[in-house]
Amino acid sequence: MSKRDDLIVKYAADLKDKCGVTADMDFLTKVTIGCGPSIYNADAATVSGSDPSELATVKNNFLIKKLGLKDSADLDKAIDSVMETYGKSNRNKYRAVVYYLLATHFKKQSVYK
């Protein structure tokens, strides 16, 4: 298996164990590929749920630019909900998992087709 495949397996385990979600492996693979090389960088591969600038980056670069959503309070609520689902006390929130949960929340899987 490639390093990316290993990471996808790790992300699927996180979704199942920490979020109670059974991953759609095809979609998770597409989201992971969409993250680009950031998944291989320890700092960039995770999202800090307590850092306002990090959450603003998720909102602006992923929800607004990638998914094409309009800026609204719903975006902030969705990010908070995903952070709650992933577990506030969980230090390692993988970017691909957060993006997977957000894309699923907004039913934007078609962006990755």
Textual characterization of the structure:
- With 113 residues, this protein is mainly α.
- It is built from five helices and two strands.
- The chain has a single domain (3-112), classed as Jann4075-like (Recoverin, domain 1).
- Helix content is 59%, strand content 4%.
- The protein has a two-stranded antiparallel sheet.
- Helix 1 packs across helix 2 (25-34), helix 2 (25-34) packs across helix 5 (95-105) and helix 4 (73-86) packs across helix 5 (95-105).
- The radius of gyration is 13 Å and the shape is globular.
- The protein starts with a helix and ends in an 8-residue tail after the last helix.
- The mean pLDDT is 95.
Secondary-structure map:
Elements: H1 3-19, H2 25-34, E1 46-47, H3 52-66, H4 73-86, E2 93-94, H5 95-105
Antiparallel strand pairs: 1-2
Rg, please? 13 Å
**CATH superfamily descriptor:** Jann4075-like
Number of domains: 1
User: Based on the structure, what is the oligomeric state of the protein chains?
Assistant: single chain
State the separation between the terminal residues, measured CA to CA.
24 Å
Average pLDDT, all residues: 95
Low-confidence stretches: none
Order of helices and strands: HHEHHEH
Looking at the structure, the CATH topology is Recoverin, domain 1
The shape, in one word, is globular
CATH class: Mainly Alpha
Strand order of the largest sheet: 1-2
**Any idea what the CATH architecture is?**
Orthogonal Bundle
Provide the structure class: mainly alpha
Tally of helical runs: 5
Largest sheet: 2 strands, antiparallel
For the secondary structure, the number of strands is: 2
What is the helix content? 55-70%
